[in-house]
Specification:
Rossmann fold; alpha/beta; binds S-adenosylmethionine; about 25% strand; globular
Length: about 280
């Protein structure tokens, strides 16, 4: 019998608990913990340019992981609550907040249950870089976003463009089209990764992960269906991690395809407002 959704989520949770412990040690500096402790704001240039002023706003950070971005948002003056299903990530986020001397609340649970876990009436939902690929039900995600927002409240979303996951580099580094553009809820993409993307090389015990590709139209239509108005949709030629070999790491911390390579959209950002 194939695994059920609960098994997929359980496998992902075990993987994320383990990765949270690795990421907070930050042996490679990928998570910028030393800079965060020294007072830096770790938002990437894409969201920093698009998010707008959050000072004084009630902000819900979905899939907050170990809280590095949540604390950067708190540093910008937002009243932040982070939500993540990994108890290890939440515990690390709480400790990091103390070490930074910043006030932010962190709550353990599924994004699907955001309204009952966090409450409602938020001015902003912020979710970036590692979001809907972990979720089987894009409509339920969009409903959760709408449910926590106050009327007039806004979603900011930025993530790897789904097209990126359709390609894999072959042995010569050439990108080859491998995946369908959309994943059925009951048949996620299964993969085994021995190490995490932070480059530390530490071996994972819980290697198996399950992910879902949601096309841009599926994400946008889910938001529209949940009662949000789309304010902007942007495709970017840069992203904060290295999906393929040979990418160029810029001084702005973003990775780009090398000059002369066929251009692909690497990141997708969306702004949306709850109208009703
Ligand atoms: C790549 S991380 C996101 C990192 C984030 N950009 C940040 O601020 O550091 C993905 C996060 O999603 C969380 N996650 C995955 N599935 C989830 C779910 N169903 N509900 C809540 N969190 C989930 C994982 O625990 C992990 O912390």
């Amino acid at each position: 019998m194939p695994p059920a959704t609960a098994d997929y989520i359980a496998a992902n949770l075990a993987n994320w608990n383990e990765r949270a412990d690795i990421h907070v040690r930050d042996e490679t500096g990928f998570y910028g913990i030393d800079a965060l402790l020294a007072g830096a704001n770790l938002l990437m240039p894409i969201e920093a340019a698009e998010l707008g002023d959050v000072a004084g706003l009630r902000l819900a950070h979905f899939q907050c992981h170990i809280g590095t971005d949540s604390l950067s948002l708190a540093r910008l003056g937002a009243d932040v609550v982070g939500l993540d299903f990994s108890p290890a990530a939440i515990a690390h986020a709480q400790r990091l907040a103390q070490r930074c001397g910043l006030t932010a609340r962190f709550v353990e649970g599924s994004v699907y249950d955001a309204a009952s876990l966090l409450g409602t009436g938020f001015d902003r939902v912020f979710t970036t870089w590692g979001t809907v690929y972990w979720l089987d039900d894009i409509a339920a995600w969009a409903r959760a976003v709408a449910a926590v927002l106050a009327p007039g409240g806004k979603l900011y979303f930025a993530d790897t463009h789904p097209e990126v996951y359709q390609f894999e580099a072959d042995a010569s580094g050439r990108l080859v089209l491998r995946q369908d553009f959309r994943t059925a809820a009951t048949a996620p993409l299964a993969s085994d990764e021995a190490t995490s993307y932070d480059g530390s090389g530490q071996r994972l015990q819980n290697m198996r992960i399950y992910e879902w590709l949601h096309s841009p139209s599926d994400i946008l239509n889910a938001l529209i269906g949940a009662g949000l108005r789309i304010d902007f949709v942007r495709e970017h030629e840069a992203l904060p991690w290295r999906p393929y070999p040979g990418m160029v790491h810029g001084a702005d911390r973003l990775f780009r395809l090398p000059a002369g390579h066929v251009r692909l959209p690497l990141a997708l950002s969306i702004g949306a407002t709850r109208t009703g």
